[in-house]
Amino acid sequence: MRFLEGADYERQSDTGKRQADRAQVVDTALAEAVTEHGCLLPNSRILYCLHEYHRPTYTSVQLPLTSESRKLYLMISVNRLRVLREVKARGSIARAAEALFMTPSAVSQQMGVLEREAGVELLERVGRGVRLTSAGEKLVVHAERVLAVLEEAEADMEAIAEGMAGTLHVAAFPTAARTLLVPALGALRKQHPQLEFTMSDLEPEESLPALKVGQLDLVVTYEFDHLPEPEDPGIERRPLLTEPMWIAMPSDHPLAAGSVRMRELKDDQWIVGRDGSPFLDVQIRVANEAGFNPRVDLQSNDYQVILAAVGEGLGVALVPPMARLADYPGIVFAEISDIEVNRAVVANIRRGSGGSPAIAAALEALADAARRRGGIPSAGAATRLGPERL
Hints:
Elements: E1 2-5, E2 8-12, H1 22-37, E3 47-50, E4 58-62, H2 67-73, H3 78-90, H4 93-100, H5 104-118, E5 123-126, E6 129-132, H6 134-161, E7 167-172, H7 174-191, E8 196-201, H8 204-212, E9 218-224, E10 235-244, E11 246-250, E12 269-272, H9 278-289, E13 295-299, H10 303-311, E14 317-319, E15 331-334, E16 342-350, H11 357-373
Parallel strand pairs: 7-8, 7-9, 12-13
Antiparallel strand pairs: 1-3, 2-4, 5-6, 9-16, 10-16, 11-14, 11-15
């Protein structure tokens, strides 16, 4: 028996037959093979069989497939849908390849096969990069729905097969890792000792892409009300808590007594997050709303470094309550009187995966940790952490 890929196949060349007979012979053989042998093989590489009686001699033939034949012989690959989604999210084949641990040539090849499966062009070149065609954009929308349903199916099967077992891969930004994730994992270990887990401290711009491609199962992220994040159809968000941002300033600062207006700090050095971080972006956005461009020469994503710099008199900073680990005798934390700035802390999972017993247990443990810190009600709505929690 001979295995053939897609519409590229070999068939018997009989001197007594005319070229026009080829399509009928091959289509009949393909139909018989699918019916008799069920030759859809793993990894979504659609392979077909021709019977032994077609084998005296062979010639290579490629025939165009009608839409009906494509539905029968070519099925869109779920794995290639994942690759397409990453190409859209990353904006280039090279970045998608890096996220998926593939080579750029492999990603290009997968996209070429997907276009043949779909029967339309999905990508077009723009300068040195690529962008999705209108057909590609529509296919990504369907891909999100398909992948969410598959997540639900996997969660159901996991619940039946394993129960509360297996390995859970989680991540959180550093302050939430310390105050929420570590206590949640400690509770999980006591309640479900057979459940294993891995943990990383990652910023949202690192953890969310890893969640989308399946490297992580649950991530805790943050976002600021002045920088609303667009909804991602592939991610399900569970609010944990909301906390106000306050101004940390040296205790000998002229404005250290009472609340402060943002515009009164226009001449101060601001200690902010690194380039590309939401922490830096929100500082610039809030300062611009107050009517000035902030000086942001000192940058760190570690709040303890930021607070140490404030304590040394190097500048001022926006700081959330969760970042305060102890008393800081050289620092005053002042309320912002003219602009309200809040940070929401959110648990994120792939849409459809919440039925997994391990993920459901982790979400509940995180909610419990948030309640102990200042609370979210049982309904799951985010609750504000006020100044009394500072």
